[in-house]
Amino acid sequence: MPESLTGTGIGQGVAYGPVARMAPPPAPPADTDSQLKPEQESARVKEAIQAVSAELASRGETAGGQAQEVLEAQVMMAQDPTLLEAVEQRVQAGKTGEFAVHAAFAEFQETLQTLGGYLGERAADLADVALRVIAHLRGEPAPGVPDPGHPFVLVAQDLAPADTALLDLDKVQALVTIEGGPTSHTAILARGKGITAVVGVKDAAQLSDGQQVIVDAAASAIITEPSQEQIDDVTRRIEERAAAAAAPLTPGALADGTEVPLLANLGSPEAAQEAVDLGAEGVGLFRTEFLFLSSDKAPSVAEQRESYIKLLQAFPGKKVVVRALDAGADKPLPFLNDAEEENPALGLRGLRALLANEEILRDQLTALAEAEAATEADLWVMAPMVSTVEEAETFTKFATQHGLKTAGVMIEVPSSALLADKILPVTGFASIGTNDLTQYTMAADRLLGSVAGLQDPWHPAVLRLIREVGAAGDHTGKPVGVCGEAAADPLLAVVLIGLGVNTLSMAPAALADVRLELSRHTKDQAEAIAQAALAASTAADARQAALDVAAR
Ligand code: PEP
Ligand code: MG
């Protein structure tokens, strides 16, 4: 096995621990006759059912509470004499243990389902027991999230949302998935909860249970046979991160005192408190899609106003940048987007869709102006997916007409980055959305795992575009922020500041890491690091060049 496996790191975490693999459900056994004598087959099955029952009971004991009741109920079902008799009959008829369990449990499951009610709901639990017994008979790991009884590195093909929701974060030190890109469910969950994760690690299937590995999200790597020196380095980094997370929540600043306001990306008003607790100095991107996505028509002005007030109230006296509805492509809305478009990422989306449905834009701006009047926050509004100077001008006029004092645009399309020196004079500020800017610069769908390698904001092509925007900000004196995932990568955050960006906005879980890294470099150093990255030919070289200069 290679000493290091690579994928896409999510966040900056690093962990060291033993692997526990999440097995896929075992394939259903075929109806075949056993090569063994019935007594031998029967003994195998009994041993497997006993082992699975003991394992479930011990997991229940460790978990306690409601989980224990559920697991004990599963054990009782597995021991049901009528069920065991049904298995035994099939074994005596010459079937394999695997098939006997599969068929007998399935029959029982059906009976429970026809009874309905409480018993009907237990049918799924019975299926889980059957899968565990079959896996045991085959010598495969039990399906589902494993529980080895100690902290571990979870290795999975990918995680279903139901699995991820139940992850015990005290036990799961890190996640490694074979599938998935930077915007997969696993990645989103890991980023939101601050779990160390590397996704899309194609060779992770080679890892075995109990093997000690280092998961280094910052380096997008899994180290399979770490040396003592590497383990010591990881221990130091883990302690340093813990200290940074526990450190007083000072405002973001470089080593020479240059202020770099650290803002939060939020997707709902409910997320505001956590951001404040983690030291967010305001909001750099409030995604308003949540208000629209669950409904088949746009929400009323009153409904929107209520949500915006809730958000703004969490940030009295602070800057809060709200983005106008960004519908289309990865966030389609049936009442706004045309489902028939062949290339929705290049279609009527973002501001284009709003200008084609002015009513929705006007309602949103009205609700925002009313919310601002009712609260103490410093509200800024911005348009998504702006690609021309005219669009920037039009949106800014709309916002001003509605009484909003600060309106700006997102720079997510190469055309607007290249024209930043023409766009900034006609609007109030720019916020660079590096997720889409990378997608459009590299022509690589941000949702597609197969091209995830190209979706890298370290790419010098992306950095050159950001440089254009930073320089235009300098010339015009207009603020330039970054609110894409790039701002959450601590070293890249330093590069962005070196390219002329003034503020950074990110998932709140990333604030501590970015705050720490910024405090290590002066403005001059940030510029030198940025120049080194810009001069590279590839994303990997840009990252390495930045690391080399930063370490000097
Ligand atoms: C971006 O594209 O970088 C961005 C911040 O917007 P979203 O991720 O919501 O498209
Ligand atoms: Mg975007």
TrEMBL record:
Residues 6-122 form the Phosphotransferase system enzyme I N-terminal domain. Its cofactor is Mg(2+). The keyword Transferase applies. Residues 1-45 are annotated as: Disordered. It catalyses: L-histidyl-[protein] + phosphoenolpyruvate = N(pros)-phospho-L-histidyl-[protein] + pyruvate. Coiled coil: none annotated. InterPro entries: PEP-util_enz_mobile_dom, PEP-utilizing_PTS_enzyme, PEP_util_AS, PEP_util_C, Phosphohistidine_dom_sf, PTS_EI, PTS_EI-like, PTS_EIN. Pfam families: PEP-utilisers_N, PEP-utilizers, PEP-utilizers_C. Its EC number is 2.7.3.9. PANTHER family: PHOSPHOENOLPYRUVATE-PROTEIN PHOSPHOTRANSFERASE. Belongs to the PEP-utilizing enzyme family. General (non sugar-specific) component of the phosphoenolpyruvate-dependent sugar phosphotransferase system (sugar PTS). This major carbohydrate active-transport system catalyzes the phosphorylation of incoming sugar substrates concomitantly with their translocation across the cell membrane. Enzyme I transfers the phosphoryl group from phosphoenolpyruvate (PEP) to the phosphoryl carrier protein (HPr). This is Phosphoenolpyruvate-protein phosphotransferase.
